[in-house]
């Protein structure tokens, strides 16, 4: 809640000042009337003028302050509008486990750079495959917990034959702390650090996936100089250009476009960051998304700096359930296959496409 206490203190001090000016200008007003009544003349008229403008200024300043304090409260409310770890109810105490979905898993607790303990599920392929399989790092949206994404993980696990690291942000599920923009970015880096600390995972094929808010987290991770070399490719789904843009869409207040960025506590400025992307990137856009306008995905795709980028439009895809549409996993498989072919083409001119095909030709959506 940083920022609120000093702000309210400033507001209080300003209010007290204004009250004083108000009182004094009122006094001056009365004196003026008396002077004018008794003596008349230009001197009293001038004084009267100053007193009246003083009153007017006071009034305007009070109004402005009132609005500012309202915005100050809004600034604080932004967190609770954006981060919804309590929805649906019990999300902070009950996190479904992968074994319910017949997925083998390890429950991981790791410490972030700023000392917060976050939880993750590591869902590994069978022993003979887990070393060679790619690993998807999954960043979920702004509500619920990682356990609510397990059905989607079943599909990824079986269709793409990948390991999955499901990340629980701080303040979500059983992870410690409370969510914030910087905090979520820090959690993302902790997830990659964790993967790199494990020797039983192929570090050269780490796929970063983010849906909705998770997309903004994934993009931030993929442009960090110290992490870009650790990520093989990026997949974002139904994510937004920025939080200020989303505020305009959700609130529909035209006045918002005149608000400076510092008004927003959480910014998630993906539309700026995508320009710095250099790794292969897939944008999955559900065209039936009524929360995040699909034009935002198109804008992100257009601004993306990577030469290997692809946008996948899924006409029936809604905000949360685009992954349930037929063809979803197959399209991801094709994207990954292309990433492989190209990385092979770069490092080794003998194109071993036959071995590649065998891995992802039998993708059937579940
Ligand atoms: C890891 O992936 C790379 C790229 O596909 C591959 O060349 C390498 O052999 C893999 N390592 C292991 C241990 O399978
Ligand atoms: C999407 O999922 C979130 C969290 O599970 C929920 O709060 C939201 O209402 C869902 N939106 C739609 C359009 O289903």
TrEMBL record:
UniProt KW keywords: Membrane, Transmembrane, Transmembrane helix
Range of residues in the leader sequence: none
Transmembrane regions: 21-39
Gene3D superfamilies assigned to the protein according to its UniProt record, in alphabetical order: alpha/beta hydrolase
GO cellular component: membrane
A single MF term (Gene Ontology): palmitoyl-(protein) hydrolase activity
Pfam families, A to Z: Abhydrolase_1
Stretches assigned to the AB hydrolase-1 domain: 134-234
Keyword Phosphoprotein: no
Protein name (Swiss-Prot/TrEMBL): Protein ABHD13
Species the sequence originates in: Acanthoscelides obtectus (Bean weevil)
